[in-house]
């Protein structure tokens, strides 16, 4: 799903199993929250105009992780049942690849790496 060209609100609803907690379509901003069975809360914000993504993880209302990524052009939905999706940062950069994968169900899980394309 291309962030700038066509933000698909229905696909995001199916992915997060929830309406956005913040939605400002005129500004190109949507934010979703999910809490898993362990009590971990993920807040995922997207700014389609700025092509940025924000991830915040909380445990017992204490922020334990904050990430902000820019130059995110699209979000790939891998498995809607598990709430699994991924995005690349600066996908056109041929020297390094940064890929982040998020899974919402049954437990929130985030994996990411920045790796060189060649040596």
Query: How far is the first residue's CA from the last residue's CA?
Result: 31 Å
Question: Any idea what the radius of gyration is?
Answer: 14 Å
Tell the overall outline.
globular
Helix content: under 10%
Question: What's a quick, concise take on this entry?
Answer:
The chain is mainly beta and 119 residues long.
Which key phrases capture this entry?
119 residues; mainly beta; five-stranded antiparallel sheet; 9 strands; 7% helix; globular
Report what the structure shows.
The protein is mainly beta and 119 residues long. The protein contains one helix and nine strands; from the N terminus they run H-E-E-E-E-E-E-E-E-E. Strands 1-2-3-4-5 form a five-stranded antiparallel sheet, with no helix packed on it. The chain has a four-stranded antiparallel sheet with strand order 6-7-8-9, with no helix packed on it. A hairpin with a 5-residue loop joins strand 8 and strand 9. The longest helix has 8 residues. It is globular, with a radius of gyration of 14 Å. The model has no long low-confidence stretch (mean pLDDT 93).
